[in-house]
Amino acid sequence: MRKQQQGYVLLVLMTLVLSAGAGIFVTSVGKSIVERKAAGDRKVLGQLKNVKQRLLTYAATHPEIYSDTTQVPGPGYLPCPTQEEKAKAAGSCSGQVASGWLPRKIGNGRDVSFEAEGLDWHRVWFVLDTRFAIQTNTTGCGSLTRGADGRCTPLNTAVDADRIKLNGRKGYVALLIYAGGALSGQNRSSAVPDIADYLDGVNADEDVDYEFSTRGEDSDSAFNDIVLPVTKSEWDKIIAARVKQSATDDPADWCKSGAPDWFARNEWNTNGKDICN
Fold this sequence. Notes:
The chain is of the alpha+beta class. The protein has helices spanning about 1-20, 35-60, 60-65, 140, 205-210, 230-250, 250-255, 260-265, and strands spanning about 95-100, 125-130, 145, 150-155, 165, 170-180, 210, 225-230, 270, 275.
């Protein structure tokens, strides 16, 4: 098992190195207002990319993070959004799609941080397909089975990410949205946040159709949201690689009798081929 852990650590490090460019920002001293705004947007986007990588790393290392529990959960799950000032991920999220502030940490003493350094925490929103949540209700799981731990199974590459729409397209596990400055009519002083006081246009009514956009309805629309998606294909790539690494490092433990329950029951495959064959 040590060999398996070492192999996966290498995988995570490679992923982080490949995403390192997300932290490179462009300065804009002496530029026009439009250019300064564009540079500011790039800085926000860079921070959101860093957060996105932390979320995917958390999802991939789920079994290691929770290795001290009786039933170790499989990889792929993400924290629930929060609507509390505590900044801790909600213990569970309900409905097909959940939204709220991006949690800065998770509970149970886990040393995990999703902090977006340099950004106002209250303006970073997180939208999540609850089938990929660390815990949800029966409605959230839909056609998947809700386990005793509140997670949906089997969570694998066959799950069709068809709930969240961005610019009319499907295929998204989650969205990170940075709310720009408050527009006319938006009040951000409430302890329990209302999405309409932060996000703009169609992004403000996600409870209706789960449709989101990277732009206003027309050129005259007041709109200043910055949206960064977590696509299902990105999730597939890192989670399938994580599972495949486990099977490759120690097939006697992972691909035969006695394999961890989450590995045996989730029908892991890449391109339609069973990872263990």
